[in-house]
Amino acid sequence: MGLGHITGHAPIRRLIARAVARDTLPPCLVLTGPDGVGKRRVALALAEMLNCEAMNPPEAGGPAAFPDACGVCGACQRIARGVHADVIIIEPGETGSIRVDAVRAAVDQAAFRPFEGRRRVVIIDDADRLVPEAQNALLKTLEEPPSASVFLLVTSRPHLLLATVRSRCPELRFGGLLTDEIADILVTWHRFNPTTALAAAVSADGSVARALETGSDDHIQARDSAATLLRALAAAPNPKRRLETGKELGGARRGSRSSAAAARETLIRRLRALGTLLRDLQVVSARGDRAWLANADLAAELTELVQSYDTDRAGRGFAIVERAVNALTRNASPKVVVDWLALQI
Ligand SMILES: [Zn+2]
User: Fold this and answer.
1) Of 12-16, 190-194, 216-220, 241-245, which has the strongest mean pLDDT?
2) From ligand 1's centre to the CA of 50, what distance in Å?
3) What's the domain count of the chain?
4) Exposed/middle/buried for 269, CB within 10 Å: 0-12, 13-18, 19+?
5) Does residue 234 form part of some domain?
């Protein structure tokens, strides 16, 4: 699949296509931005562009009037299947980290001419999982990059890379996808019907990965907790009762003993679900188009909740939830965040 067939990220795709056409691609790039927006897909499309045996001319739909990979020749197909000899994909192993030997093997290969293609491409996915020793091994190569090789580091957490690595690799910053773009991807690549796709996309916050989670057990459980919280807070009981209600939102799932990190993730998932409910309440309250509801299947419940959450309260609540999620991703104490939220909504 060439760059021209990727949804969203038009400026980045243009930049890459132009650099390839003019042979000005840097030897190393960091592809950064939220999870599930297509960074790895773009890295693979770039690998195809560098090795395609039958490039499509610009007029055949390449991004912004530049040649694009054909997506069907032997090289493109082998790259898409992950079996091209010159396109090396490194990702975390079972330990969750990327060990130094994986990087050393790739770095050694990169010193030689490509086997079958024009350029060797080393894609390191979840590059923030590189152990420091592996980053140092990589660093030596980045200092004097072999001319026929390109290193693509894919990560949603670039701040975890060594400063010395980052300083040598220009960053391509991906943003979230638009709701329409996500719906489009769900229909085209994941066989969603258009109505379900739109509902999943609305609650996905710019990420295809998150849209695909919609409907999973975890998602449904998170939404149940969030709805319970809204019902309990709707009656606006006294602060003490509010704090108790909040505690339930932060509580572990029944029957699970989870680590602090897992508990934080569960809480964030519940808050995101809470955010989608509050956004839906704004839609219902403003008598907006129901096609935009993320929780259209809860229409009856939303109609009941909207008695307590008018546009103002739901809008304020949504902003509060956003601040809470931000604080949690920056490592704030879950208890402090939940207490604050329960008193504010
Ligand atoms: Zn091709």
Assistant:
1) 12-16
2) 9
3) 2
4) buried
5) yes
Does some domain include residue 263?
yes
0.90 cut: is pTM over it?
Answer: no
Based on the fold, state whether residues 90 and 155 are members of the same structural domain.
yes
**Whether 319 and 259 share a structural domain:** yes
The alpha carbon of 170 and the centre of ligand 1 are apart by a number of angstroms equal to 26
Nearest alpha carbon to residue 148 among 168, 170, 116, 120 = 120
Q: Which of 141, 173, 205 is the last residue of a domain?
A: 173
Tokens 């104490």 sit at which residue? Answer: 333
Distance separating the N- and C-terminal Cα atoms of the chain = 46
CATH of the domain at 38: 3.40.50.300
Domain extent, residue 125, equals 3-173
Query: Do 238 and 312 fall into the same domain?
Result: yes
The Å distance, Cα 118 to ligand 1 centre, comes to 12
337 in the same domain as 221: yes
For the record, the structure tokens of 292 come out as 């935009």
Supply 104's token pair. Answer: 């050393």
Cα R_g (the chain), whole angstroms: 23
Alpha carbon of 67 to ligand 1 centroid (Å): 11
The answer, yes or no, to whether residue 162 has pLDDT greater than 70, is: yes
Residues around the ion ligand 1 (C-beta < 5 A): 52, 69-70, 73, 76
Q: Looking at this protein, which amino acid is placed at residue 53?
A: E
Rounded distance, CA 69 to CA 25, Å? 16
Give residue 192's pLDDT band: very low, low, confident or very high (50, 70, 90).
confident
What are the respective helix, strand and coil percentages of the chain, to the nearest 5?
A: 60, 10, 35
Q: Return the number of other C-beta atoms located less than 10 Å from residue 271's C-beta.
A: 24
